[in-house]
User: Fold this.
Amino acid sequence: MSLRTALAALPDDRGTAAVLREVLAFFSAHSHTGVPVERLVRATGLGHERIEPVLAALCSAAVLHCDGDFRLHDCSFDPDHVLALEIERFLRTAGAPNVRLQASVGRYRNRFGSA
Assistant:
């Protein structure tokens, strides 16, 4: 049960990291509850084609618990303390550079106008 194992199975790009961040944030807010994949798709606004590879990696790394084929069943998130800390650290650090960049661009545009 390791987020590091799931990350190693996924492509290392911004799009995948953004989907992973959305999925982990959703399941962190709904821990100890079975969540249908359709509800996850509606809540995040992401399509099946973007969510399914992330769910497959998270299920194979035992971060999420899915009965059988995750497309047909509910997935649940019941982390131990170490996994919860690992996910909290990922969520905190994964969005930080993007937030700083957006704030910097916003300050630039306020100061000098849009180019």
